[in-house]
Design a protein that fits this description.
This protein is mainly beta and 67 residues long. It contains one helix and five strands; from the N terminus they run αβββββ. The chain has one helix at residues 2-8; strands at 17-21, 26-32, 38-42, 49-53, 63-66. Strands 4-3-2-1-5 form a five-stranded mixed β-sheet, with no helix packed on it.
């Protein structure tokens, strides 16, 4: 019975990409929007917006800089 509960409680990791905001020299993660058409987020200090479209033939890179 313990094995069944352990299988049920496995968490699915949430997708994200890492962004370094050059404006304030900070790093944060941004996550897909509800429609899963783009990764969207804001700089945690100055609240500058960033958005990156999700495409089928995208890149393997998980970390980016926003200037």
């Amino acid at each position: 019975m313990l094995d069944d509960k352990a299988t049920e409680n496995k968490r699915i990791p949430k997708r994200f990409i890492g962004i370094k905001f050059e404006c304030c020299q900070v790093y944060t993660r941004i996550y897909p929007n509800k429609q899963e058409t783009a990764y969207e987020g804001r700089c945690p200090k100055c609240l500058r917006k960033v958005s990156m479209k999700i495409q089928k033939d995208g890149v393997n890179c998980r970390f980016f800089s926003a200037s």
